[in-house]
Design brief:
This protein is an alpha/beta fold and 556 residues long. It is 36% helix and 22% strand. The chain is built from 20 helices and 20 strands. The strands form four sheets. Strands 6-7-8-3-9-10 form a six-stranded mixed β-sheet, sandwiched between helices. The radius of gyration is 24 Å and the shape is globular.
């Protein structure tokens, strides 16, 4: 049974010269788990919104879309609200009431369901998702992961036939993401719900997928069972080679089997069959960067509480070398964002001591601290945009300077080129993709020429291609003397690019080390490549390292 059918779909935004989607055709069957992937700007988000009638963007639309046998024009918005659940990337835009209980009831009430039915469904969904502990809490008291769970539960209150997820793991730590993906798979397999998901973090989700649809330049590059993805595409297509999970990339590079393994265990088994045991050479000699012995930031015995409910940070201590790319990792609600808010001066340090370039942070005036010393790229980067175009916001970032208009234009042009946003300067900030908005926000921050840049989840919404280019931008900044500190859940990115990493747990810094040492010393909180090959190559943390060591051993 076909739930959704798309035939010869073409779409372009008003005034655009190029089509965002071109000749898109596919069918989605009842109970399928579909992953929609592609680099930023490939048309994923636009296509996803086409599959939820009330979210269809304004523009020139051609082709045919049918929902459960009904043409889009004959499919009512009420039916869409009941049949198709859509979980937004940013749940801040999806919650509409003040409490968890009322949020759960909201959709069902708007469908006109009887009060008794709504009460029964709230009880059922609360038990299913273990929400009893937060059912009477206010929405603004919840963590990001809890808000997302409540939004999903509210959608499921309406018993939808199709669930659409728009990058649902972008703000979740790895464990919370695993839980969400597992839940989506359970809903699909046990309740015959059709699941359609866009996600850049494919490592944990690919094993659940029935099909993988990859878009490129508004067209379908491939539509296949993930294990049958063409190995030729790994060689010819940069996006495929960088975005697919580690087991698939390792297997494709080493030609381990006809079908690609989708999980770590499958790839580990194939490696064991291929390699001679014990391996001849297990040491990976990577590039070592010698960091400054001077510190951009020093925190000692810092404690902080928002209220009397308890400390978020307790005796927190950390030293960050000048010119380093430093990552702060840990679970949701561990205290990471609070830590960088204190280190950047956004929150007052009342207990303990924080120094910036050897000077007590309390002795800095805000005018000195935030003009050439410290800049912050927030997780909700939308807060940096107030203009009618990206360029207007970039110009506003230079409004307090005494630069001439010509020099401002030159700086904007150079920064836009650096962050790869030249093509969206005339677009409204809210008409661009999440990855493009993140890059534009970074451009705003860089125009301040700060010596220290704090970033809260900077890679969310970025495709793997731009992550590598983004890392190149950061490394150039670090080589010029800028210190970059990021809070991140993206273990693969941090392992590949960061100089040092720290883990926060329960308000304490429990581990701080060189990034390679950090990930090899962890057993669970490490990269997929390390988990895949550590019994052969315990010092390898990236796919590149595993592949190179495998080739070295196979040739010996």
């Amino acid at each position: 049974m076909v739930d959704i059918s798309v035939k010869n779909l073409c779409f372009s935004y008003p005034g655009a010269d190029k089509k965002t989607l071109e000749n898109i055709s596919f069918e989605i069957n009842k109970g399928e788990f579909i992953i929609l992937s592609g680099r930023s700007g490939s048309g994923k988000s636009t296509l996803l919104r086409m599959l939820k009638p009330e979210l269809t963007p304004h523009g020139n639309l051609q082709g045919e879309i049918t929902f459960f046998g009904k043409n889009k024009s004959d499919y009512s918005l009420r039916d869409s609200a009941a049949d198709i659940g859509y979980l937004l990337q940013n749940t801040e835009y999806q919650t509409v009431t003040h409490s968890v209980r009322s949020e759960l009831a909201f959709g069902a009430e708007n469908l006109g369901l009887p009060t008794g039915t709504i009460r029964q469904r709230i009880a059922e969904i609360s038990a299913y998702f273990s929400l009893d502990g937060i059912i009477d809490k206010k929405i603004d008291e919840l963590s990001g992961g809890q808000k997302q769970l409540v939004c999903l539960a509210g959608i499921l209150m309406m018993h939808p036939k199709v669930l659409i997820f728009d990058e649902p793991a972008s703000q979740l730590d790895p464990m919370a993401a695993e839980t969400l993906f597992s839940t989506a798979n359970k809903l699909c397999k046990e309740n015959s719900m059709t699941v359609i998901m866009t996600e850049h973090r494919l490592q944990s989700i690919i094993p659940y997928a029935d099909r993988l649809i990859v878009l490129e330049n508004g067209k379908i590059l491939t539509d296949t069972k993930p294990s049958l993805l063409s190995k030729k595409l790994f060689e010819e297509n940069e996006y495929i080679n960088l975005s697919m999970p580690s087991p698939m990339r390792i297997s494709a590079a080493l030609n381990l089997s006809d079908e690609l393994p989708l999980d770590i265990g499958g790839c580990r088994k194939l490696l064991g069959e291929k390699l001679k045991l014990p391996p001849h050479d297990t040491n990976y000699e990577g590039e070592t960067r010698h960091l400054s012995k001077s510190y951009a930031i020093e925190a000692k015995n810092v404690s902080f509480a928002y209220d009397k409910s308890g400390y978020v940070l307790r005796n927190f201590s950390l030293r960050i070398p000048e010119g380093s790319f430093f990552a702060v990792l840990g679970a949701n609600a561990a205290g990471k964002s609070t830590a960088i808010s204190l280190l950047s001066g956004l929150l007052p340090c009342r207990s303990g001591k924080i120094k910036i370039f050897g000077k007590d942070i309390k002795k800095y005036k805000d005018s000195d601290l935030y003009n050439g010393t410290v800049a912050v790229l927030p997780q909700k980067c939308e807060a940096l945009f107030a203009g009618n175009s990206v360029k207007e916001d970039l110009m506003n970032a230079l409004s307090g300077s005494f630069l001439t208009k010509e020099i401002k234009e030159k700086k904007i042009t150079e920064t836009a080129k650096l962050t790869e946003i030249s093509h969206i300067l005339d677009r409204h900030p809210y008409d661009i993709s999440g990855g493009e908005m993140q890059r534009a926000a970074l451009a705003i921050v860089l125009l301040k020429n700060p010596r220290i840049v704090f970033m809260d989840e900077p890679t969310k919404g970025m495709d793997p291609l731009f992550k590598d280019r983004f890392a190149g931008i950061i490394k150039r900044l670090c080589k010029s003397g800028t210190t970059v500190i990021t809070v991140s859940h993206d273990t693969e990115f941090c392992a590949r690019h960061c100089d040092r990493c720290a883990m926060i747990s329960d308000g304490l810094c429990v581990l701080e080390a060189d990034s390679h040492e950090f990930f090899t010393s962890n057993y669970f909180y490490t990269t997929a490549a390390n988990k895949t090959a550590r019994e052969f190559f315990p010092d390898a943390v990236t796919e590149k390292e595993v592949i190179e060591l495998c080739l070295k051993n196979l040739q010996s």
